[in-house]
Amino acid sequence: MSTPATITARKRDEALILLERDFSKAALDSLPGIFYLFDRIGKFLRWNTNFEEITGYSAEEIGRMHRWSCSPVRTRHWVQERIRRFS
Fold first, then answer.
1. d(Cα 4, Cα 43) in Å, to the nearest integer?
2. 17-69: per-residue pLDDT in tens?
3. Residue partners of 35: CB distance under 8 A and separation at least 6
4. How far apart, in whole angstroms, are the C-alpha atoms of residue 67 and residue 76?
5. DSSP notation for 16-85
6. What number of other Cβ atoms are within 10 A of residue 44's Cβ?
7. 62, 42 in Cβ contact below 8 A?
8. Contact 28, 46 (CB under 8 A)
9. DSSP letter (8 states) at residue 41
10. Alpha carbon of 41 to those of 8, 13, 18: distances in Å?
11. pLDDT at res. 43
12. CA–CA separation, 29 vs 15, rounded Å?
């Protein structure tokens, strides 16, 4: 059973999470170029609006894509090699 104190704490925590989400989105969107972050299997985790504008994909589409979906076939090997060197 939830008490008023636990409900208040949960609402405070939810507000802090939303504040952090909004802050990090604003920070990424303020970058002058593209930014994206993907996990070990290549699923996009975060990106800025410049990435959406340059690729032409919506946020929903990018969220379902693999990192190679946005990379031209002719440059994939070059990009893969650089990622491997810095991983």
1. 39
2. 999 999 999 999 999 999 999 998 889 999 999 999 998 999 999 999 998 88
3. 28, 46, 47, 48, 50, 51
4. 10
5. HHHHHHHHHHHHHHTSSS--EEE-TT-BEEEE-HHHHHHH---HHHHHT-BGGGGS-HHHHHHHHHHHHH
6. 21
7. no
8. yes
9. T
10. 38, 30, 27
11. 93
12. 21
Longest pairwise C-alpha distance within the chain: 59
Query: Which tokens go with 73?
Result: 């076939």
Q: Is the pTM of this model over 0.85?
A: no
* One-letter amino acid of 85: R
* Per-residue pLDDT reduced to its tens digit, 15-31: 999 999 999 999 999 99
Q: Residue 19: what residue type? A: L
| Cβ–Cβ < 8 Å for 18, 10 | no
Q: At 47, is the secondary structure helix, strand, or coil? A: strand
Closest CA to 30 of 55, 48, 45: 48
HSE toward the beta carbon, residue 79, CA cutoff 13 A? 11
